[in-house]
């Protein structure tokens, strides 16, 4: 997976592997920014297939998730057919056919003709439970019934990845249907490897210091704990500013990339910032961090 | 993938399921040990575990552990217990005797994963009485502590409570349902209707948000120290029941009793709550022998959690948290509750005092799982509760 820009730990690799072999959806839970969505994207690249994404939100309903009729086209066809003097039944058959169906993500995922796509159902915890029950049905049979057309069965059962930020508990029934992976924030070593892979312009020293700084931050009580995405943004910002190591000025200028809550930014000024900075920039050589970097640099 | 998973052929060779060893039995024992530790593992999870074993290298113990965690759907707070039990109990079934002996030794232990939630505490003390501008008998009554209420206040209080409860009936769901008259145009249904009229849109079908009733679960401590307060809270909850019929009420003290059927709002006569409480005291043995919050909560979790609580349920616990028992079961039961419920509100009559600190042992153990700790010493504090109920 590394070739595709993702550093997977063994737990993630095992979960993905089992999900694929057992043909079961994979439910990934974890804090925002730990890379849940990224897993689905990488999986699609890895399998060289299409990624179909359904972003959940409160109030998401079937016409947004599954299908909707193309009313404008139906209207036009209706007027035309009337002109042609067709009967009511003929017209109905005509306008309620697949040509006038708008496929939303769930339907699209089961009608791909050539290859099973990756279906990402993102932030399922935001949808309401009615939708969860509906989803359970789709994920059990991979078939969809449209009253006007009939039942559409999946040609290729998609690889399904569900993500949840745990803003609420997912129902037992849906959870049991899936395999489960909990993603934690990455360890220091893993995060530095991710930095190395995704922001190669950041040198070994900057990567290690950024990694240590972020790790130290996650140990603090924050409103919004920074995820990997924030770490990468921050490293990129520092590179743009031409920093090759962390110093107070550069950190103060760019901290907004990392901390996206006013209170957190406020808490991490003055002494707290100095303290974290000191942890991040301890020894620049000989400690575990830079050894890890060197090891990775050597391997790459 | 960098930790290259074994191919199917690899996994099936070697000592996999199908090699004649009793993997299913072994998994079942492991599953049972997890359940005894309070990790929710269902039969279907064990089946998933067995299937997962087909695909992996069974000689790689770490991979077996990772695969079982995925198949058993082990959540972060159960991870420590899972790892520990796996370490202790998992052995290939070639040595069935040792395993079953080891499993026999599993004793109930509690895992200590407690999520930090100190910021969840919200103690709103009643605002200073100097705020009142005009005089109104209601306003005075609203701030009067329950334990200072004279018998003649009670009727007025009950009236006020009923009015207050009506306000709850206003929560709207975000999902749209068909409606007449108002709401957003529902194209799909409009179109089908138009078809019936030869393609003319005579009337548009519309959708709007339905009213959604909150689900309430009340666990009321009816021990002696709570006496002056519990009557009012139950009055309040029963009044809520008129607008939110899905309220479930349990009373606890030395044991747990479901009193929902006794307090049907439709049959609520004056004095019914007092009569019910008196009946409990008379009929349940040792009813006033001192509070056992932990045991009662655990009993609730074991017997009622799955059927009475879902993620729409707001749990109201009404207790002063004074308990001499063991606090470990409290934390455990609260964790199970908070996993399932939408939110947990703890109403503590003592919290009405601005100097109150939630330091009673039982209260402190429960606190990490409580979304809001609120005072409940007078009507005004109950009134403030309303917005939290329809979160």
Structure notes:
The complex is a heterodimer of chains A (300) and B (391). Helices cover 49% and strands 13% of the residues of chain A. Chain A has 300 residues and is α/β, with parallel strands linked by helices. In chain A, the strands form three sheets. Chain A has a five-stranded parallel sheet with strand order 2-5-8-1-9. In chain A, strands 3-4 form a two-stranded antiparallel sheet. Chain B is an alpha/beta fold and 391 residues long. Chain B folds into three domains: 8-104; 118-171 and 211-389, Rossmann fold, CATH 3.40.50; 177-208, no CATH class. Chain B is 44% helix and 10% strand. Mean pLDDT of chain B is 71; it is low at 1-16, 95-135 and 169-173. Chain B is flat, with a radius of gyration of 27 Å. The interface between A and B is large, with 49 and 44 residues.
SS field, number of helical segments of chain B: 16
Major sheet details of chain B: 6 strands, mixed
Give the uncertain stretches of chain A in residue-range form: 285-300
The greatest interface here is:
A-B, 49 and 44 residues
The coarse overall form of chain B would be flat
Uncertain stretches of chain B: 1-16, 95-135, 169-173
Measure the end-to-end span of chain A. 14 Å
Biggest sheet of chain A, open or closed, and with what strands and sense? Answer: 5 strands, parallel
* Rounded mean pLDDT score of chain B: 71
Span from first to last CA of chain B? 43 Å
CATH T-level topology of the largest domain in chain B: Rossmann fold
Write down the Rg of chain A.
Answer: 24 Å
The percent range for helix content of chain B is: 40-55%
- Supply the CATH class of the largest domain in chain B: Alpha Beta
Rg measurement of chain B, Å: 27 Å
Element-level helix/strand string of chain B: HHHHHHHHEEHEEHEEHHHEHEHEH
What is the H/E order of chain A? HEHEHEHHEHEHEEEHEHHHHHHH
């Amino acid at each position: 997976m590394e070739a595709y820009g993702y550093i997977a730990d063994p737990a993630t690799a095992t979960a993905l592997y089992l999900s694929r072999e057992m043909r079961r959806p994979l439910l990934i839970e974890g804090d925002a920014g730990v890379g849940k969505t990224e897993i689905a994207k990488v999986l699609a690249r890895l399998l060289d297939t299409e990624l179909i994404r359904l972003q959940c939100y409160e109030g998401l309903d079937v016409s947004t998730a599954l299908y909707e009729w193309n009313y404008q086209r139906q209207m036009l066809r209706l007027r035309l057919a009337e002109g042609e003097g067709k009967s009511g039944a003929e017209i109905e058959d005509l306008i309620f056919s697949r040509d006038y169906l708008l496929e939303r993500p769930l339907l699209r995922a089961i009608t791909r003709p050539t290859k099973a796509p990756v279906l990402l159902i993102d932030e399922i915890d935001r949808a309401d439970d009615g939708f969860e029950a509906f989803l359970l049905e789709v994920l059990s049979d991979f078939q969809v019934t449209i009253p006007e057309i009939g039942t559409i069965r999946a040609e290729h059962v998609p690889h399904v990845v569900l993500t949840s930020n745990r803003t609420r508990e997912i129902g037992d029934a849906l959870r049991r249907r899936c395999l489960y992976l909990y993603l934690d924030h990455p360890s220091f070593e893993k995060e530095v490897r991710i930095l190395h892979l995704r922001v190669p312009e950041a040198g070994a020293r900057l990567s290690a210091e950024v990694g240590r700084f972020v790790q130290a931050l996650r140990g603090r009580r924050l409103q919004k704990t920074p995820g990997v995405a924030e770490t990468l943004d921050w490293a990129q910002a520092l590179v743009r500013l031409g920093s090759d190591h962390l110093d107070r000025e550069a950190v103060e200028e760019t901290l907004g990339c990392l901390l996206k809550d006013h209170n957190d930014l406020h808490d991490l000024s003055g002494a707290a910032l100095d303290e974290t900075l000191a942890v991040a920039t301890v020894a620049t050589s000989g400690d575990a961090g830079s050894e890890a970097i060197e090891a990775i640099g050597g391997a790459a | 993938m960098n930790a290259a998973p074994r191919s199917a052929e690899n996994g099936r060779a070697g000592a996999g399921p199908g090699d004649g060893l009793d993997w299913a039995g072994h998994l079942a024992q492991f599953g049972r040990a997890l359940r005894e530790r309070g990790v929710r593992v269902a039969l279907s999870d064990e089946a998933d575990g067995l299937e997962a074993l087909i695909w992996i290298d069974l000689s790689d113990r770490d991979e077996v552990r990772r695969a079982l965690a995925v198949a058993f759907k082990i959540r972060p707070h159960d991870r420590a217990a899972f790892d520990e039990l796996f370490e202790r109990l998992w052995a290939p079934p070639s040595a069935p005797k040792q395993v079953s002996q080891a499993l026999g030794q599993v004793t109930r232990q509690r895992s200590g994963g407690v999520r930090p939630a100190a910021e969840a505490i919200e103690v709103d003390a009643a605002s200073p009485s100097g705020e009142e501008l005009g005089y109104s008998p209601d306003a005075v009554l609203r701030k009067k502590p329950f334990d200072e209420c004279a018998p003649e206040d009670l009727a007025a209080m009950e009236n006020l409570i009923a009015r207050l409860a009506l306000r709850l009936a206003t929560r709207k769901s975000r999902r749209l349902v068909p409606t007449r008259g108002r709401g957003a145009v529902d194209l799909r249904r409009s179109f089908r209707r138009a078809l019936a009229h030869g393609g003319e849109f005579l009337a548009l079908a519309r959708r709007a948000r339905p009213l959604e009733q909150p689900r309430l679960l009340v666990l009321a401590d009816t021990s002696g120290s709570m006496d002056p307060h519990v009557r009012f809270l139950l009055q309040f909850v029963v009044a809520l029941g008129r607008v939110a019929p899905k309220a479930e009420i349990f009373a606890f003290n030395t044991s747990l009793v479901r009193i929902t059927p006794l307090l049907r709002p439709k049959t609520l006569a004056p004095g019914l709550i007092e009569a019910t409480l008196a009946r409990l005291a008379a009929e349940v043995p040792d009813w006033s022998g001192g509070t056992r919050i932990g045991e009662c909560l655990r009993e609730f979790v074991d017997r009622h959690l799955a059927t009475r609580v879902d993620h729409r349920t707001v749990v109201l616990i009404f207790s002063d948290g004074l308990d001499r028992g063991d606090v470990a079961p409290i934390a455990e039961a609260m964790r199970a509750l908070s996993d399932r419920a939408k939110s947990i509100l703890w109403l503590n009559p003592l919290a009405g005092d601005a100097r109150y600190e939630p330091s009673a042992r039982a209260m402190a153990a429960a606190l990490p799982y409580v979304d809001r700790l609120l005072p409940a010493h007078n009507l005004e504090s109950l009134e403030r509760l309303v917005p939290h109920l329809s979160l």
